[in-house]
Write a structure and sequence with these properties.
By secondary structure, the protein is mainly α. Helices cover 78% and strands 0% of the residues. It has one domain: Helix Hairpins (Orthogonal Bundle). InterPro entries: MazG-like_dom (IPR004518), MazG-related_GP37 (IPR011379).
Length: 102
Amino acid sequence: MPMTIDEYAAWAASIAKVEEHPSNERLSYLGLGLAGEAGEVADHIKKLLRDGWLDQAGLVNELGDVVYYWACLCAATGQQPSEVLKTSAARINRRLSEAASR
């Protein structure tokens, strides 16, 4: 049975040993990990533009690493990833509605 995003976040937090009240250093580590992995995603896109082909397997691996750090940060800040996604979708839909009404 597949994991929900909330189950994945709990698993990732246990692997990363995320505590209930992580230190600023730990939060910084997770944030920098997220930024680093996002940079690796960008590097795959850069290589697509430069070389004309996409290493799709490599890109998928990096996207998984992005999700891992994002999920750890959700757990570290006491957020349920499903709620973060719900809030994000609502915010994006609101922006789309506002843009369409202009």
